[in-house]
Amino acid sequence: MPVAFFDLSRQHEPLQDAFQATCARVLESNRFVLGPDVQAFEEEVAGYLDSHHAIGLSSGTDALLVAMMALGIGPGDEVLVPAFTFFGTAGSVVRTGATPVWVDVREDTFNIDLADAEAKLSPRCRAIVPVHLFGQPADMECVMALAGQNDLYVLEDVAQAIGATYQGTRAGTFGEFGALSFYPTKNLGGFGDGGMLMTDDAALAETVVRLRNHGMYPKYVHPLLGGNFRLDSLQAALLRDKLPRLDHYHAARREHAEAYLSELAGLDGIAVPTVSRDAESVWNQFTIRVLDGRREDLRAFLRDRGIGTEIYYPYSLHEQECFAGIGRGGESLPKAPRIAREVLSLPCFPELKEAERSEVVEAVTSFFRKG
Ligand SMILES: Cc1ncc(COP(=O)(O)O)c(C=O)c1O
């Protein structure tokens, strides 16, 4: 039986009538940029995450960039970022003119290694960006302690982890900012690009509201250099149709992940991810490490059986050509480049069927039995 890595049509099919009605309503309103649907969506997400402010933006990458602009990060500053994450996390740091400090990640959770972050601190470090990778919150107790002791801003990249909790608190609400993405593959996936910043700080929220509209305040007066980072009305309106279903999607992902964990744990040749006792993951991805250089063989074996997999991410960011000569700390990353060559993500979307999941488990198990 073929198993798709990801199939959004299954999630959207039962919601078609609601989506059609929403589109008709927004088209009739002739209000397409920001507006009442964006404001309502911001309030709903803020309520869901228990954040004082949520500001809708054009993408998760722009959310990270705008957060750093609002914090005044720029040339001469350093920002601690994990070397193993999506490109946009570090790309936004470099776009402000600041220098990324490449921090290693943990093999068990794939999240930032705080001992390495501490070792790489310098007086120029102004912020740390913990990424809650694959849906699991980073060790926020240590992040907040390190930031408190060293006067660092905390910008959480919560693109993959909307709704995840750490010690009972929502990821994305610990630091100065949490940055969300609504890219279609995310747990709350939109219909194009979209993002959001959460903050409890009213002044920072106000700055973000101005930055997303060219730094304009009042009309045609620009005290700040902003950009067009606005969220569309249609995007927000459609995301509002999906938000009430998010916990249900999370529960289905969790069920798949727990089954994979129990059925694949102990298999010689792979390492399953560890979930920290403090964290509740929302399983944006279920990612294993394939040991002994056998990832491509396993991937090809699964492909031959029609089972889709993905590699998030094939390179440590310090290896990317556009970062050559940029950044600090790349010479001391014993784990990130190796992890990038071991990771393989298995199908783990909410609508995956139990029989399909069993097919994946059976195929992975038989690959290693064959030796
Ligand atoms: C960890 C992480 N950070 C940032 C982003 C950027 O989000 P977007 O694609 O909405 O720009 C993504 C998503 O692609 C991501 O997975």
Molecular structure report:
This protein is α/β, with parallel strands linked by helices. The chain has two domains: 8-244, Type I PLP-dependent aspartate aminotransferase-like (Major domain) (Aspartate Aminotransferase, domain 2), CATH 3.40.640.10; 247-370, Aspartate Aminotransferase, domain 1 (Alpha-Beta Complex), CATH 3.90.1150. 39% of the residues lie in helices and 14% in strands. The chain is built from 13 helices and 13 strands. The strands form three sheets. The chain has a seven-stranded mixed beta sheet with strand order 1-9-8-5-4-2-3, sandwiched between helices. It has a three-stranded antiparallel beta sheet with strand order 7-6-11, with no helix packed on it. It has a three-stranded antiparallel beta sheet with strand order 10-12-13. Helix 7 links the parallel strand 4 and strand 5 (153-157). The longest helix has 19 residues, at 246-264. The structure holds pyridoxal-5'-phosphate (PLP). The site of pyridoxal-5'-phosphate (PLP) has 15 residues, from helix 4 and helix 5.
Can you summarize this structure?
By secondary structure, the protein is of the alpha/beta class. It is 39% helix and 14% strand. Helix 7 links the parallel strand 4 and strand 5 (153-157).
Q: Number of helical runs?
A: 13
CA-CA gap between termini: 23 Å
Strand content: 5-15%
User: Structural class per helix/strand content?
Assistant: alpha/beta
- The CATH topology of the largest domain turns out to be Aspartate Aminotransferase, domain 2
- Give the CATH architecture of the largest domain: 3-Layer(aba) Sandwich
Radius of gyration: 21 Å
pLDDT average, as an integer?
Answer: 97
**Strand and helix order:** HHHEHEHEHEHEEEEEHHHEEEHHEH
Shape: globular
Poorly predicted regions? none
Instruction: Give the beta-strand count.
Output: 13
How many structurally independent domains? 2
Bound molecules: pyridoxal-5'-phosphate
Strand order of the largest sheet: 1-9-8-5-4-2-3
Q: Class of the largest domain in CATH? A: Alpha Beta
Helix content: 25-40%
- Biggest sheet character: 7 strands, mixed
